Each structure stands twice: as structure tokens, then as C-alpha cells.
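Work Package 3 (structural annotation) set out to generate three-dimensional models for the target panel prioritized at the project kickoff. During this period the team completed the workflow that converts sequence records into C-alpha cells, so that structures can be stored uniformly alongside our sequence database. As a representative example, we reproduce one entry of 501 residues exactly as it appears in the project archive.
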Amino acid sequence: MKRAKGLTVALTGLMACAGLIGCAGPEAEAKPRTAVPDRFTSQQLDWKACEVPKLDEAGAQCADVTVPVNYADPQGPTLTVAISRITGTDPQRGVMLSNSGGPGGEGLDFMVDVGKAMTPEVRARYDLIGMDPRGVGRSSAVDCRWPIGFGLHSAGLDAAGFAESVAIHGDLAARCVATEGARLPHITTRNTARDMDVIRGILGAEKISYFGTSYGTYLGAVYMQMFPDRSDRMVLDSAADPDAYGTVGMMQAMGPANEAALDLWADWVATRDGEYHFGTSRAQVRGAVQNLIEQAADQPIRLGEYEIDEHWLPVVLFVGLDSPDQYEMLAGQIRTIADAAAGNPAQPDETLDATLGFAMKARPNDNSAQMAIMCGDVAAPRDPEFYRRNIEAARATEPIFAGFTNNITPCAFWAPPTEPTTVVRNGVPAMIVQSTGDTRTAYDGAVALHNDLSASRMVTLQDVPIHWIFGRYQNSCVYSAVNTYFRDGTLPAGDMTCRVD
């Protein structure tokens, strides 16, 4: 019999959109833009020390930008967007904005890492601007006061686990409505793109260059669609398909990619059975992982202050599989969890504690901004049966991740978006950088974005399961292509394929 869980929540009957909302075509972006009052575009920023060691060591300064909550009502309430600036040394330098992904990721210090991947010549040519988008981090942050930290988890292994998951996500959505109220519908990607354009104007730039990864590629593509004449050198690293963006299509695309990455990890672990004791073949290692999830479903695994059940164990795997550099880390984490499940003394190390704390703890680790942005951008199907059918249909080919990548989310209980979803179709030049094995933004999605951006070029890193390349995963071919584009604005003559150094 399935055990009772410690977290008890009530399913909340919030009204939400029953299906995907209609989309406005590209011509919608050609309509005159609502003028932003001078009090926003001419504001003087108060630059000061960031009081973030990583930024302070890089010589950065930080400031708060005031923007409207609702651009359709610019005389109404305002919020702040926190930005950082690492100044370039070239007198003719430009401005490069950025986004680190998520959505909901804090990005004030993101350009410190990206800047290290730039050649000195390129680095000198830009003021690098980090940003916590609206609703996130040091900006006017969404705080739904969730009892857990993360709005995505696995549905579990059976009907009881799925029913519990539905109740949890209904409760999370209700908490956001109760705590954020009227501001919630305006924490969207389109409004963040408008915030970026206000920042462009304040910094005195005619155009912006941009580096975004993961969700940041969607934000960059939306900016290009809304402000094509203000987009300069745009690099979209680990790109999302804008037509599949949201908690359904984008999540579903992660399933096969993560199962494939789990195969590679299992092969790696199988050659080290003397250390990890999960078996000497891919099948044995996979079987050990599946058994561990089933054990967690029957009885949560106590590890330090955490009780890890079948909802959260796949999240640990998901987090660890986004880079081959993390195989050893992930193997150690699963070994620790297995030891705890066997009743042996075990404590999470720093990395596992960070993952579990981010996912399972309440404030201050609440990542409700992620759901606020995604649910505010795109409506999701409301009927729980839609998700249950998708989970069951995927289990045969995605035995570990079907319940995670097809699960219901708080978006099923969200109010309809206030604006149509952005359709990205334009001829703004851009560089798309993508690995074929990406576990977060699947390769096919980057190809789709490439087709949507008719003047783009694609740089493919072949046979590497890595998410976010430039600034995270050293590859001379990719780094050279990106630096060349940022240096002189020259895209490759055609699409490129890079391989591991």
C-alpha cells in the first residue's frame, strides 16, 4: 500500500484557461509600440557597489531600474529591475544585455562567467549587463510563500502519486494568487523584453547586443520579434523552440534527451562498479536507479533533514545530467541516497544538499518566479487527465523521466495570460549555439528556432550532452565562432558543426 506523505495539501479549484491560447502573427509586432513615458527612459541610475563578491571582484557596479508593472498602464504602479554593469575599455564599446535562463534564474553575476570566455579584444568592446528580470532575485521579486522550493517534480509511479501531485500543484498556484494578486499577470517575458528596451534607452544605446542561454534564448528571440530594429549581435546558446515554449511542449521534449543522457551516465557508472556498486552494465545501473525510485515510493528515504520520495528523486537525476562534467558528482549523490535507503549512515554533501534544498525547502529557496513567468506567458491544458494520459503513454520509452517531463504543473491552475503568446518569425541576424545532447533544451528545438529566424546561423556541438556552452563548457570551435561574431558582427557563411576538443 502506498504510504501517506508528510506534505498534505488540498486540491484547489482555481479557474484557468482550458487550452492553449491563440497566437498573434508576426504582423502584430509591426503595430506602433506604446510610448514609454520619459520618466522611465530618462531616469538617472544610482550606480553603486553590488555587494556580491563575484561581481565586486570583477569591478562591477549595480543599479535599480524603475519600470511600469503594466506597460499598458504606465502611470500605474511600478517595480524595480536590478542590473549590473562590467564596463568595457574600448571607447567605441557597445552594450550587451544577458539572461542566464530559468525562467526565474538570477543573472546579476552571469556575465562574469560569460566574460571569461571572451577574448580580451571582445571583452573590451562591451559594457556587460547582468540582470535579475522582473519578479526575480534583487528585482521586485515574486514570493508565493510556497512550502517547497521548486514548482516542477515527478508525478510518481501510480495513480495515488499522480493525485498527490495534482493537489500539490493546485495548492502552489493558489498561494501565488493569494500572495501576489494583481501584479502576477504582468511577470511575463514580453514585459521583461520591454524592460530590456527601457534599459537600452537609459544606457544611451541605439541597439543592444545580447547573450542568453536556455530560457534566455526565448527571451532574446521575443526581444528580436518585438524590437527588431534595436537588436544587434544576438547569441542564443542552448536554444528553446518558441513554438513549444511552456510547461507542456518544452518539458515533454526533455524526456527522450534525459533518458539518452541517463544511458551515457549509466555506461560511465558501470565501468566503476568497484566504487559505486550499481552494476557492471547499463541495464544493471538503470535497474538499480529504478529500484531506488520504487523504494522511495514505498517509504521516503531519510537523508539528513530531507525525506526523498519518488517525486523528488528524478529531480536529482535531472539536475545532474545537464553536463558530462557532473557524472562523478551525480554517481556519488545516488550512492549516498542508496546508502541512506539501505539504513547506512549517510549525509548529503554540499552539492546534493544544494539540490535538495532548492527543490524541497520552503523560503528563501522558493522558485515561484519560474512558474509566474511560464504560466503568465502560455496557457496550459487544465484537465489532469491530459497529463496522466501523457505520462502513461511515455513510460515505456521514458521509464525514469516520463512522470517528470509530462507531469501537471501549477500552470494548469493559472489564470489566462494577459497577452497572446509571441510568435517568433523574423529576419534579424543571430547565432544559435547548441549541443546535440542537450538535456534541457532539446536539439530539435534549436533547429526549429533556427528555421524561425531566417537570417540566423547555427553552430552545433556534436555528441556532447551539455546545456549552456559558451562560458561553461570549453570548446575552441564554439568559442571562436562566438567571439568572432561578437568582435566584428560576422556570422559564419553557413551553419557549422563543432566537435569535442
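The CA atoms of residues 331 and 444 lie 28 Å apart.
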